[in-house]
Design a protein that fits this description.
The chain is an alpha/beta fold. It has helices spanning about 10-20, 55, 65-75, 90-100, 115-130, 150-155, 195-205, 235-245, 315-330, 335-355, 385-395, 420-439; strands spanning about 35, 40-45, 50, 110-115, 135-140, 170-175, 215-220, 250, 275-280, 290-295, 360-365, 365-370, 400, 400-405, 405-410.
Amino acid sequence: MVRAIPGPLGKRLMVRDKRVMSPSYTRAEPIVADEGWGCYVKDVDGNVFLDLSSGMFVLNYGYSHPRLVNAVKKQIPKLTHFAGTDFYYEAQIELAERLVKLTPGKFSKHVYFGNSGAEAVEAAFKCARWHTRRPRMISFTGAFHGRTFGAMSLSSTNVLHHRHFFPLVPGVSSMPFPYCYRCLFKQEYPGCDFLCIQFIREYLKKEIPPEEVAAVITEPIQGSSGYIVPPPEYYPMLKELCDEHGWLFIADEIQTGLGRSGKMFAMEHWGVNADITCIAKALAGGMAPIGATVARAKVMNWQPGAHASTFGGNLVACVAAIESLKILKDQKLVKNAEKLGKFALKRMKEMEDRFDFVGEVRGKGLLLAMEFVKDKETKEGGIKEREMLIHETLNNGLIVFRGGSSSIRIAPPLVMNRVELQLGMNILEKSLREVERKR
């Protein structure tokens, strides 16, 4: 860090930004980026930050990975766009073939390409309704699936996302997610009798005709709520409920997929094969927007014209995504996420024991969260402590990301090495000590 943030050039750019950009953007931290490499990003005033958020969980392969840059450079002079919903090109076919093999489940699959995670969810929502001819969907409290109307209707992480946008897409019911640290039923795991599953069963008797439900959609590990990891028995029990009533199981792997959790897809931790898997964020490594919806072939059986996208599966995005999947394999990044995740989780658990305002540390692989409290006994949310921590980490040259009302998310690029992660953990601990001194 060479000067306070924002620096003079950063301030001038922020003033220009405010005049023309939508005020709906959150813009929580005053970093004005200029360039990046690996796990680092430099702002326009010369400060260099170690990024433990992967550019909002997109840069699994780090900033400006040379193989991704070269793949895009090679494609651009040849052809940048061709209408993939009306014609054909090999890159789109190859990427779909790779995703069919990578996603869990040894069954025939089809792939739909869009431009974002929200679009991948919208496609899954529409596909489920089209295939089943059923109108209802079940999602979960604390879920975030996107901000378009269908995806937003499936989300319930923050009332701000719904305010003044009613009516939403009808037919969505939100069930309690197993957030064991803050159980809505005031139970302790184990020994809770899984009242969160029993609640759904009771709801089916009184509110939701089960034969009208098309699908259940869930993030394997809830992202925006602060990486909430359900207990190991939960998803097999939920899948059993789906099979019992003929519901589709949709896994939103937009943030958790592609090696982030120490598995290629997070749902593999529970041995559950989704009928539809949604992928985006890291798929093209930030080189171009892309999202994918991968479904059982017998489920994605809608007729031509039922759903499409002008830019979905754009050539440049497909080429970048193909190369990113090669990097994931060649550099053994899934294994790296698993190994480094264990190291980081151990360090963060030590911090949980050391600081009385750290309530819980949780996560899998390089998908980790730290939740802050005012008091460990009452578990009252430490919103002030979280904001103080983020301020300290930024001033110390470290980027972390908010999650839930009082948590931070740590999800560094999968190309990070142990030395860099050690540096990040040291800065995080230093920042916690400063919060402890000031609170």
